[in-house]
Design brief:
Chains A, B: Its EC number is 5.4.99.12. Chains A, B: Pfam families: PseudoU_synth_1. The structure is a homodimer of 251-residue chains. Chain A has 5 helices and 10 strands; from the N terminus they run E-H-E-E-H-E-E-E-H-E-E-E-H-H-E. With 251 residues, chain A is of the alpha+beta class. Chain A is globular. At the A-B interface, strand 4 of A face strand 4 of B.
């Protein structure tokens, strides 16, 4: 059965996260509903991973299988006509049988955006965390460096996470100023629940001087309570998902 | 009684417009509720004018009177702590008795933003009209020029408008490209209901070749049905309100 890979962007504000949940508006639920309409039968969508309620995506990747249906390159047009304005189809293409939106992922990149202006821009409030307190950005950058590489990230994930293996590899944690905004960009081979938001909350707590603990010490303890706050969902955006043999998937 | 002038920005998406309406979430309603809490008694707010449901403001101006209460410059801090994130207080100052947020207005400026990229930016969907069809921007600029000056704008306002005098003066109607966005900026001494949105819809219809009529002919007819579409509310933003003796009121 032909397999279609679809890249979508979404404004997570009005969704209860990515994963289908009965009676709730979710990305997977809305997408499956519109794909079922196009094919006249149910279509199951597989995402590169879940995003939590309120989290956005510039370029989430999903796949689905279908026997008959329009050519791959028609999906963007058909879905754009049909989807609500807060989900935008960006790219669709046919992929080999062994492609899987989740299991073939090589690198995921998230961007978290903090708004630091004293007077917040009201048009960014859904997409940023307004935290105007003074921060030692250099200290945050140094702490970010200590997160790189392969670690057990138990201290940086929701304490309710049931995944057994909490070892992940971070390829980049960049803290970058952009005008009155501060972007924290994290790339890695996988992320645990709330991992980026706890990394961001911890870096901010360190930068503001609320927390006085070395990242190495927090990692080694494997104890969520030693890390900082969980930054709010609204500042987080799934930026890019990369697959083997494929450098950049989205514009 | 001291009179306080307050400049606010708001994201109009989740409001039923500016004007207080029983049981509905409106800018005036929310603002009065929070000011009443600060003063421990009801406070009536007067705006520079209403904005319709879904319309935004970068810098709306309101005033209110109060006998006792905090110094003017404390309102921004107090309101920011208390208001929801989609209304942002920007500036507060004491003004002379004869100041009136509505009757003292000299110039109002609105910005309307059209998103023209084939693939819309999902994070702009609440603040723009996505209209990717090809447009003759030069033709739109020429038509905009014919709107300048004093005219009876009956053809460019909601046909249900009950105001008797529909003569207004436009000081500027600028059609400006900004990357893949097109801004239409209108300044004037006053605006009728839907006036900017009908101006924008008409300019777009002319630019796309859907409408083939001179602006002078539309103005002269004083007939709403000769003008173009009413552009959607979400692309419209009250940009600036200027008063006598005061050039710029907002950052």
């Amino acid at each position: 059965m032909p397999k279609i890979k679809l890249v979508i962007g979404y404004d997570g504000t009005d969704f209860h996260g990515f994963a289908r949940q009965p009676g709730l508006r979710t990305i997977q639920g809305v997408l499956e509903e519109h794909l079922a309409r196009i094919h006249n039968h149910p279509v199951e969508v597989f995402g590169s991973g879940r995003t939590d309620a309120g989290v956005h995506a510039r370029a989430q990747v999903v796949h689905f299988e279908r026997d008959v249906g329009p050519p791959a390159d028609k999906y963007v047009y058909l879905l754009r006509r049909s989807l609500p304005r807060d989900i935008v189809p960006i790219l669709a293409e046919e992929v080999p049988d062994d492609f899987h939106a989740r299991f073939s992922v090589r690198t995921k990149t998230y961007r978290y955006t903090i708004q630091r202006a004293a007077i917040p821009d009201v048009f960014s409030h859904r997409y940023t965390w307004h935290e105007p307190l003074s921060m030692n950005v250099q200290r945050m950058q140094e702490a970010a460096y200590d997160l790189l590489g392969e670690h057990d990230f138990t201290s940086f994930c929701a304490s309710t996470t049931h995944v057994e293996d909490k070892v992940r590899t971070l390829f980049a944690v960049d803290v970058a100023q952009r005008g009155t905004y501060l972007d924290i960009i994290c790339s890695g081979n996988g992320f645990l629940q709330y991992m980026v938001r706890i990394i961001v909350g911890t870096l901010v707590d360190l930068g503001e001087g609320r927390l006085d603990r070395q990242i190495r010490q927090i990692l080694a303890a494997r104890d969520r309570s030693l890390a900082g706050r969980t930054a709010p969902a609204r500042g987080l955006c799934l930026w890019q998902v990369d697959y083997e043999g494929n450098e950049v998937h989205n514009g």
